[in-house]
Amino acid sequence: MAPTQPSDSRPRRSDSTRAAILDAARERFAADGYERATIRAIAKEAGIDPSMVMRYYGNKEGLFAAASDFDLRLPDVSYIPTTHVGAALTAHFLDRWELDETFAALLRAGATNPAAAERMQTIFREQLGPIVAAVCPDPDQAGTRAALASSQILGMALARYVLCFPPAVAMTREEVIAWLAPTVQRYLTAERP
Known about the structure:
Elements: H1 13-36, H2 39-46, H3 50-57, H4 60-67, H5 85-99, H6 101-110, H7 114-135, H8 142-162, H9 166-170, H10 173-189
Helix pairs in contact: 1-2, 1-4, 1-6, 2-3, 3-4, 5-6, 5-10, 6-7, 6-8, 7-8, 8-10
């Protein structure tokens, strides 16, 4: 009888190595920021040689791009009354910030690194842009409205999760939504000034 060949459904070693590298990179980028995170520290945390990181991702920017491939998992707003989209998005973003440190790492890095800033812009443009275009009264202004809504959401994230301003940290989830949602809603659906 011929030896059994490994099934294609079994994960390959390279898949588990890549996953370990990405997990370690997300941890290091979240803890250290882009500038201070090193390939050597990421490799050590992943339990591999630094050359393997370079083999799979080329350089630190390539690794960061892969590690920050971030799905905002935005809600389907077609089932939400238009007048409640601001509150739904604000609540959603609070949940995302609190459940995944990758997003905070991306914000930290985006403030100082052009590649990280570009990654953040792409994520918001591709994922938030279509939602804004679907609810705003003038779709030709969707980009401007998405930028304004993002300024509120990202501003609170910076104050609450990155800089940890005590008053911002002390606010309850409900208080943050009550303060931010009306402004986000206005940016999304108010008549153009």
